[in-house]
Design goal:
alpha+beta; Jelly Rolls; eight-stranded mixed β-sheet; three-stranded antiparallel β-sheet; 17 strands; 30% helix; binds fe (ii) ion
């Protein structure tokens, strides 16, 4: 997305929203000013560490070792907000899925995809390979493990959630060709745009930041997540479900510079900075050498600006942090490519994470992935899955995605019988035999 921050204007009620938030928390201005300075200082240190670590800063774990990780490793994964899980699916199975997707788009040249004249991101959700992958027992086991990184910080058992029951969220797949430049996915955050501030439930997730106690912020606290409305404006392509982690399963060998994913691997710090940013404005010109100094920033409760949000389709997209708007994130240094993955490896990133897609693919092979997040059972999520199941049975696109051509007539579309496990059937909202329930 091409963003010119100077041309973005926001509705006047956004300044009311800022003042409403400020009035909810005692000593708001003093507390967030202190937090802002601390977060900026920590970002400088984190930037040096991330840059030094490079791709290996992103934790990597073998699927078979998931249940035997040390507490230190789990803490590292949670702080960095991302993980590569290797060998979730056997190589042969992943490669067969890749070949079936290639064959499917070859024999169905009319299917929708982007870019239209050289399709690589396909508007297909129900191919046999996707249906099978979402129901894969190992994949769902990894989802359960990821979902269980969340808990209610108060120690109470949350009602209306079962982290041991994974749900399937149907999304697209891509077959990215080498040499193709892609400008479409600069650093951004999904799973809520203005809703992060505007929706009272989603805002609760960031309350410790808004009270100035940003170090206590727990991105894995279930409070707020279960009832959050992450899509208040009904914009297509905006997820309405609570995904603990977004993810993709790689069906090919892909490494840095080969069109892979980029991540800002410190979800605590990026959350703190992103949530505080609208309440501050620079007091010096953007190009000033002093722009990084916290003293160069003042409180902004007057303007309706939420820097990085982009009005689109009656709602908003983003946040899209940029070096211009969010200089302390040092995005040129901190956006870290995922280390090399092989068929059957998957990468998962926390739903609040800043992520991007490399513009260039300088490799020699297709980079093929299926987008499959980790989604726990919650009342809201299950309601979505029930509607999604009906779309599946009719070959229609899932509810969160733009309406379009049916997949019912696509050669190679998946059927209910392709869901090969009870865990998978339940994830798709289908009944399972009593003994398996
Ligand atoms: Fe995204």
């Amino acid at each position: 997305m091409n963003i010119n921050p100077n041309t973005v204007s926001y509705p006047p009620h956004f300044s009311d929203l800022k003042r409403e938030i400020a009035s909810n928390y005692p000593d708001f201005e003093a507390r967030i000013s202190k937090a802002w300075k601390e977060v900026i200082e920590e970002l400088a240190t984190a930037t040096a560490n991330i840059q030094q670590g490079g791709p290996s800063y992103i934790p990597q774990v073998d699927f078979k070792d998931l249940d035997n990780l040390t507490a230190a490793k789990i803490n590292e994964i949670k702080r960095r907000g991302c993980i590569v899980i290797k060998d979730i699916v056997e190589d042969g199975k992943a490669i067969a899925w890749k070949e079936s997707l290639r064959e499917l788009v070859r024999v169905n040249p009319e299917v929708d995809g982007f870019p239209v004249d050289n399709k690589q991101l396909f508007d297909l959700y129900w191919t046999k390979a996707q249906v099978q992958a979402r129901a894969d027992p190992n994949f769902l086991k990894a989802n359960i493990w990821l979902n269980n990184l969340y808990q209610d910080k108060s120690g109470k058992k949350s009602e209306g959630v079962d982290l041991s029951v994974p749900l399937a969220y149907a999304d697209r797949f891509r077959i990215r060709k080498p040499g193709f430049r892609l400008e479409t996915f600069p650093p951004h955050i999904d799973g809520g745009t203005i809703e992060r501030w505007e929706d009272p439930a989603l805002r609760k997730c960031f309350e410790d930041i808004l009270t100035g106690n940003w170090r206590q912020h727990d991105p894995y606290d279930l409070k707020g997540r279960l009832d959050a409305r992450s899509s208040m404006y009904g914009r297509p392509n905006q997820s309405t479900v609570f995904r603990t982690f977004q993810g993709w399963l790689s069906l090919s060998e892909t490494g840095p510079t080969e069109g892979t994913l980029g991540l800002f691997p410190d979800v605590l710090l990026s959350n703190a900075y992103i949530i505080l940013r609208p309440f501050f404005k620079p007091l010096v010109p953007a190009g000033s050498p002093d722009i990084l100094d916290p003293k160069s920033w003042g409180i902004d409760l007057e303007s309706p600006n939420f820097p990085g949000l982009v009005p689109i389709g009656g709602g908003f997209a983003g946040p899209y942090p940029t070096p211009f708007l969010h200089p302390h994130l040092f995005l040129e240094k901190t956006m870290t490519p995922v280390p090399k993955v092989y068929p059957g490896d998957a990468v998962f990133w926390h739903c609040d994470m800043i992520h991007s897609v490399e513009k260039e693919h300088l490799g020699k092979e297709d980079s093929t992935v299926m987008y499959i997040p980790a989604v726990p059972y919650t009342v809201q999520n299950f309601n979505y899955v029930e509607r999604q199941r009906e779309c599946f049975l009719k070959g229609q696109r899932p509810p969160d995605f733009p309406k379009g051509r049916s997949e019912a007539a696509v050669v190679g579309v998946g059927k209910e019988s392709d869901i090969g496990s009870d865990l998978g059937r339940r994830a798709m909202g289908f009944p399972v035999a009593e003994s398996a329930a």
